[in-house]
Amino acid sequence: MSTGSRYLKQFQYTLEQDSVSLTGSFAVDADGYVASYQGGGIESVADFDGGVTDGYYVIQLDNGWNHFYSFNAHPVCAANSSVASVQLKMDPTTIQTDIKNNVPLNIQCLDYAGAAVNPAATCQIFFEIKVRKSSVGPFDSSTTV
Hints:
By secondary structure, this protein is mainly β. It has one helix and eight strands; from the N terminus they run E-E-E-E-E-E-H-E-E. The termini are far apart.
């Protein structure tokens, strides 16, 4: 599905043109494998390396986007969870090119000590990815201070 045929109806004020929030979630089974996922603009969510690395997942968007803004994720669990945060594991020097070329987003769940950990089977990871559809980017260049 191309970005032009989407139902992008929610208007929001922003200094950027055509900013888009992609939201979704995924659940894991008792072994930490992806059991199900959902979300608009999300093509798939899968284990990064077949479950070899704890808590490492890949989110494939259904299109490339012109600019990446942010990634936020939160575990929601029925019981206490060992997942303290979810880290985006991408090279910051290439992430803008990666987003344009629809390279999957790599994420990893971390415990309170910063070690990789699988979410419990009672958890879902809810996430939001903010991107820009427009190729107009008045704030794309960085300023060195």
